[in-house]
Here is the input.
Amino acid sequence: MTVQRFIFAIDHVSTWVGKAVSWLMLVLTIVVCVEVIKRYMFGMPTAWIFDAENMLYGTLFMMAGAYTLAQNAHVRGDFLYSSMRPRTQATLDLILYIVFFFPGIAALIYAGYDYASYSWHIQEHSNVTADGPPVYHFKTVIPIAGALVMLQGIAEVTRCVQCLRTGKWPERLKDVAETDVIEQQLEHSEYVDEESRKIAIERASQIDEEARQRGMGDKLT
Amino acid sequence: MSDPALGLLMLALIVVVIMMGFATAFTLMGLGIFFGFIAFYVPGESWVHNKVFDLMVHRTYGAMTNDVLISIPLFILMGYVMERGALVDKMFYSIQLAFRRVPASLAVASLIVCTFWGIASGLVGAVVVLMGVIAFNPMLRAGYDVRLASGVITAGGTLGILIPPSVMIIVYAAVAGESVVKLYAAAMLPSFFLSFLYLLYIIGWAMLNPKIAPPLPEEQTKVPVPAGMYQFADAYSQNTFVAILKALLSPGRASKIEVDGKRLTYPALVKNLIIALVPFWLTAGTLGTVWWYVMIYTQKSIASTAEEAAGLQQLGSAVVDNTPTPAEMGPPENFLMWFGICAAILIFFMCRYYYRVNVEKFEVLKLLSSSVMPLGILTVVVLGVILLGITTATESAGVGAAGAFLLAFHARSLNWQKTKEAVFLTAKTTAMVCWLFVGSALFSGVFAILGGQALLEQWVLALNMTPVQFMILSQAIIFILGWPLEWTEIIIIFVPIFLPMLKHFQIDPVLWGVLVFVNLQAAFLSPPVAMSAFYLKGVAPKHVTLNQIFAGMMPYMGIVIVCMVIMYLWPGMTLWLPKYLYGN
Here is the structure.
């Protein structure tokens, strides 16, 4: 198995889980809307809905953490970082992954495991309302999400090592980016001329990258 | 090393490591764990029982069950769906036609589109690039001054993170423990005031010096009116509104006229009438809602709270706070007079519009109602529902997200692919913000336990500053932090350090927060680090230099600062609406 395939295998796991839990977003939207209708139109609020909403949202963001890391979408102060050479970036990243990331996430898994196992042990129920729904499975999300992020962290460290060896960052899986909206908006535009449309669509992600470097990169002078 | 000193070391380290460019959420977690471990270290105790682990997992679970943060994914989803559903170039085109007689019409239209877009989404980069393609090049071709054109797009594009419903405000609410609705109400007037100041500046400059924004050539301001509409006007009346009414009474002549290849049948006439009545509905709707809220809704709720209070008080239940909010105290003095004046002005303009409406104006109205109206109505409804306290922020966000889907499906601009993209992007952005929150919750907890927070507070208090000095100092620090950092990091990591000190200086955290939001606008517009300038440079023609773009941005930065000074001198602008709606 080549290194690249190893990295991609982990990326696929994180991305698959992340995309699967993303759909909880639509479930959350529907739950909120149904509850609004029930409460304001029929005057029949549901007691456990508050817990259910929290569980949907909490699971969503925790489990999407690894997916976000696989896409390099966690916010970073990229002011200086993005103008460094890939090898320097990889060295810094490698050190910081080992110094901060692994201890932090390991602590999260350890603490989360304790927390969840205790909750299973006492068969904990939510205390927001009387006779609330069980929460032990929800608390189990913490160690699982931690483990996923840890797994993705291994892939990221491998990326750093790979970059140190070759001097180039290994590829990431293709995924939707915020700048994609530019293409979608301009694709069917009736009022913008063909040429500037094409240029903008083609260069969208490149523009994004250059803007993050804020003129300190070598491409833009 | 003493504990507070460790705390300061931790704060210094976080700044250094963020600048090194490591993912901030994990930096916070790692630093939190290390320093927390030292803070909780008890000699003789096994390291596995260190309390930092409990702190960490409780903070994590706290973020997972935070009832303020829960509205973040819903608002983000609404934004992404709208962004993909609404057609921004059509919006720009129709607004530009509507303002074709105003000086610097293209710049004015860009600013209005940016403001609208800012309501829908909070992405700076995408807005600037899109507006750069749609509006910047046409402005340059029309001979606009490069500085005017670039300034309006960069400043307008940054507005998105400020105008409610913005994610930044929710995050601040979660950090400061303030209510989201109160902050929305507070940010409402200042953010529109800021874009109004921008507008004044553009029009004022263009009127003083018409050379910077030459009027558009005739063929670009011509409204594309289908030939059939002229026949229609000749057959009935030059006033389109009258013509439609007449045609509805005697549809014979109209059915022979072809518009866009289709005959003007009776249903088509009714459709036109509905569009023609849009200004009427808008006027009636606005006036009606204000009247309903002030005169009926709040009066009814005051009656019901009075009834509840009259009933028996349950033993041990909290004492019901019966002080009514100003809104509940009945209509404010002079309400009738002001309402009358506003209604008279609105009705006058509406009548004037109907009196003068002709085929061209009608076509513009048609364009506007198809491009701007759906987005406008959705945001007004979402904001209105939050502000009037009818539902909670979470519920409004959920309804807003569902509404955005409905609108986009209705406009047939959303397909399966785009839905998927919006959902995945929402998951990524939510995870980014909320993991940062988890990390920062641990970090700030440890920082407080080490006594770093207390030490900083002592220092600041020892400086013996007046509230004004403190206000200027804190805003200046945030302004400088805004150069290299994103708003997420500033609000989640650095703002909490200032929050406990506000009480000492008797500064309202709501006012301070809104000032921070506006301040970040200035920070994101300050050369040479402003990202929006580089986004614009990316799509601009070769001859536009970065320096020209920076020069264009500078005045807007000045305007933001003017806006902040006005907000400080006249806090009523920020605090009136939340006070009126929710009391103190």
Confidence is low (pLDDT under 50) at residues 312-320 of chain B.
